[in-house]
Amino acid sequence: MTAPTGPDSVTAPAAGMGEGRRVEGERTRVVREDDCATRWGNEGLMVLSTPAMLGLMEQTCVEVLAPVLAAGEMTVGVGVTLTHAAAAGCGEPVAYRVALTVVGRDVDVDFTVVGPTGTVLGHGSHRRRVVDRAAFLRRLPPPTG
What we know:
15% helix; globular; disordered N terminus
């Protein structure tokens, strides 16, 4: 595996989603203070947190899938298995690599999170579901507050 190529870079697939289609993409992001474990109660631990790793992997999926979805469609996460294997410090670039396979309305995701030296920081699987955006939003309760 190669190290990340640059901060906040995104590679995206060509348009056109279909059953069995495999789409790959990558997003590189520098670990920021808000991404660190200290935000989640581990005072002074300035390394990429597991919640941030998960969120940034999901964000990568959304960005990679956006060009291949039909108008009015979006994806939502419905399951995940994540292993957080190594640390990345604040200020380090981290690559979020996703390989997505379409299975009906589901998108199966294999992902790997890689640090600047090529160390695998995390890996796992994720499932997203393709939904009609307007219908999905209509089912949500009205916001409070």
